[in-house]
Amino acid sequence: IYYIGQTTHYSFWILISSEGSSLTRKIVKCATASAASATEASCFTSVIVPLRRGDRLHIQQQERNR
């Protein structure tokens, strides 16, 4: 996932839930950070996770303007 935008601070989680399970696991978190003089902020994250049939991925905003 790659995010680019205004110099505000954001963070988000990538979550996975498996079919038949009530648990949602946090896989990775990405957070933007920028200098006061920057005009844009970006965040890149990647992860390799084996998926099974029925698994669902979710993106959840964690913080805004943190």
Annotation keywords:
66 residues; mainly beta; three-stranded antiparallel beta sheet; 0% helix
What does this structure look like?
The chain has 66 residues and is mainly beta. The chain has one domain (2-64). The protein is built from no helices and 5 strands. The chain has strands at residues 2-5, 10-17, 24-31, 41-44, 56-64. The protein has a 3-stranded antiparallel sheet with strand order 3-2-5, with no helix packed on it. The chain has a two-stranded antiparallel ribbon with strand order 1-4. The chain is elongated, with a radius of gyration of 14 Å. The two termini are 20 Å apart.
Which consecutive residue ranges, at least 5 long each, have pLDDT under 50? none
- Our count of domains comes out at 1
Helix content: under 10%
How is the largest sheet built, in terms of strand order? 3-2-5
Which structural class fits the helix and strand makeup? mainly beta
Order of helices and strands: EEEEE
Question: Residue-averaged pLDDT, rounded?
Answer: 81
Q: What's the overall geometry?
A: elongated
The separation of the N and C termini measures: 20 Å
Rg, Å, rounded:
14 Å
Q: What is the strand content? A: over 45%
Q: Could you give a short account of the major beta sheet?
A: 3 strands, antiparallel
The beta-strand count equals 5
- Specify the number of helices: 0
SSE topology:
Elements (H helix, E strand, L loop, with lengths): L1 E4 L4 E8 L6 E8 L9 E4 L11 E9 L2
